[in-house]
Amino acid sequence: MTEVVESKQVENVISEQSLNTESVKVSNKRSRDDEEMQDSTEGGVKKTSFPQITVEDTEEEQIRKVTIPFNRIAPLKANWQQIYEPIVTHLKLQIRMNTKTRKVELKTSKSTKETSALQKAADFVHAFSLGFEDAVAILRLDDLYIDSFDVEDVKILKGDNLSRAIGRVAGKDGKTKFTIENVTKTRIVLADKRIHILGSYSNIRVAKDAICDLIIGSPPGKVYAKLRTVSSRIAERF
Q1: Is 102 in contact with 109 (CB distance < 8 Å)?
Q2: Is the dihedral of CA 7, 13, 17, 20 positive or negative?
Q3: Residue 195 vs residues 21, 163, 166, 216, 235: alpha-carbon distances, Å
Q4: Neighbour tally for 237: CB within 10 Å
Q5: What is the pLDDT of residue 59?
Q6: Alpha carbon separation from 51 to 48, 74, 136 (Å, rounded)
Q7: 3-class DSSP state of 108
Q8: Can you name the residues that pair with 93 across neighbouring β-strands?
Q9: Which in 140, 165, 178, 200 has the greatest CB count within 10 A?
Q10: What is the separation of C-alpha 148 from the centre of its chain, rounded to a whole number of angstroms?
Q11: How far, in Å, CA of 205 to CA of 184, rounded?
């Protein structure tokens, strides 16, 4: 019995010693972290600097393929020079049009420097395939996006009601669409019951709200007045 008691006492002593050593290690680690935090705060905020990533760092060549709809193949062939020139000269990418698969293929080259060049070119070609003839701004600006939605996503319409809703968005001779574009600084494409909007995030939201009001049935005059107030608020902010 005495031997069992002594062994238990020895085990308890060993466990206490191990706990003490672990607590000492933790306290030392915390003290080191605190010292490092003090050093960083005393000497000012030290920002970590990483070297800029270039396409040369990635050994493999990256490829993107953009599918072109049937109705946009003829405009693509007609405006091919305006499409490939900025992509080749400014972004230093390789581009070709595959008429069999109806795809525009983009590939990085040894002279490509920007890592986002391939994505910008793909967005530019995709915007042109949707119907935006002046989508070159995507290559020059960073905060441009494309939002697409159906008329039936706003309100379920069929037959003449659907055509009247699309007519309200377009307006007589496209007047309503041009007004929304000029006020919100966006570009709008009406492809049957599919609507595409190109612009910044805040401007797309304003244009989309105006288009949704027209689809629901609001009169154009009311939508124009709402656009004026919203545009004046945007002008005051910036």
Answers
A1: no
A2: positive
A3: 68, 13, 9, 15, 26
A4: 6
A5: 56
A6: 10, 44, 30
A7: strand
A8: 108
A9: 165
A10: 13
A11: 9
Cα 155 to Cα 168: distance, rounded to the nearest angstrom = 14
Beta bridge partners of 189: 196
Q: How confident is the model at residue 106 (pLDDT cuts 50, 70, 90)?
A: very high
Minimal CA–CA distance to 152: which of 143, 161, 142? 161
Q: If we measure between CA atoms, which residue out of 118, 106, 199, 1 comes closest to residue 207?
A: 199
Question: Which residue do the tokens 């007519």 mark?
Answer: 167
Residue 219 · residue 171 · CB < 8 Å? no
Written as one string, the DSSP assignment of 81-114 is HHHHHHHHHTS-EEEEEETTTTEEEEEE-TT---
Q: What is the torsional sign of CA 91, 97, 101, 102?
A: positive
Residues 41-65: tens digit of each pLDDT: 444 555 566 566 555 555 578 889 9
Each residue of 201-220: b (16+ CB within 10 Å) or e? eebbbbbbebbbbbbeeeeb
CA–CA distance, 210 with 165 (Å, rounded to integer): 13
For residue range 123-182, list pLDDT tens digits in order: 999 999 999 988 888 888 888 899 999 998 888 888 888 889 889 899 888 889 998 998
Residue-by-residue DSSP string for 129-191: HHT-TTTTHHHH-SS-EEEEEEHHHHS---THHHHHHHHHHH-GGGHHHHHHHHHHT-EEEEE
Return d(Cα 162, Cα 50) in angstroms, integer: 54
Residue 218 phi/psi, 5° resolution? Answer: -70, 145
With H, G, I as helix, E, B as strand and everything else as coil, classify residue 234. helix
> Residue 177 and residue 188: Cα distance in Å, rounded?
7
